[in-house]
Amino acid sequence: MYPLRRNRRLRANNAVRHLVRETILTPSDFLVPLFVVEGHGVKEEIASMPNYYRLSLDNLGKEAKELWNMGLCAVLLFVKVPESLKDNKGTEALNEHGLMQRAINSVKSACPDMLVMTDVALDPYSSFGHDGIVANGQILNDETSEILAQMSISHAEAGADFVAPSDMMDGRIQIIREALEDEELTNTGIMSYCAKYASGFYGPFRDALESAPVKKDNIPKDKQTYQMDPANRIEAIKEAHMDVDEGADIIMVKPGICYLDIVREIKDEVEVPVAVYQVSGEYAMLKAAAEKGWLDHDAVMMEQLISIKRAGADIIASYFAKDAVKLMG
Ligand code: PBG
Description:
The chain is of the alpha/beta class. It has helices at about 15-20, 55-70, 100-110, 140-160, 170-180, 205-210, 235-245, 260-270, 280-290, 295-310, 320-329, and strands at about 30-35, 45, 50-55, 75-80, 115-120, 135, 140, 160-165, 190-195, 250-255, 275-280, 315-320. It has a single domain (about 25-329), classed as TIM Barrel (Alpha-Beta Barrel), CATH 3.20.20. Ligand PBG binds near residues 121, 123, 131, 279 and 280.
């Protein structure tokens, strides 16, 4: 006997598929990462991230307007700091006329309603390429958190709507929250990279900012003492609870595709929005395969983005944001 229930009825044509579709991507799902450099008229393609660029402040303003007109209303800023300004403590991060502080201003001047989030970590400013201060072969936790708090105040004063600590030091969300409150920056939000894994997928990003850990004796060669072990899931839930308790408004899982089980578990556990960062290596991987003609770029891109949202992402940070929105038509 034929089955009474035939699931293919709901797949028969575009109209019915659209009617029953459970997950829909919209431009407002996206947070657009942007790389900023010194100079004027600069738009340099990043070698390991085809069709993605480092922008000088003038072009950053133009880009912000273009994004806004496409319905992309939130950006996440990263800066490439000249080698000469790097030191162990990331002193330049606190310069009120520093590149990040000016970048925030450029975006807000060009596009006042754009939501601006800023990366908070020492690595782009660190002469060792680490997210914290290095001493005796260790990354110092509490001393680093104090600087991150100062950095957050500086970004907030420059006009950032949210600060996004990506360093994975313990206790830094509380320290940053308290510091912002003390300065009466009560409206500045915190998006915490709460489950950030020690991943091989960050390579192209470190090319973009020339921020990879240096290879030197007594300097940890990777970030495994602060970023999470890809083997762990219960630890991610613990991190999520702790960051929410410490005052995070939004929490983030990173990278994306390999960690969608974590996204779902965290989404089911907490009551704050969950962001997912589809990172540089994920972008590079698809670009490379598509360039060789081995994968259909647009189809795989949309499949990955919809999968991230289906897994529970309220916000998707992705280098594909513009490409995806163009396809949405
Ligand atoms: C820095 C930071 C990294 C990324 C975001 N913030 C790199 C790292 O931790 O080494 C990676 C983003 C990407 O790969 O797209 N703290």
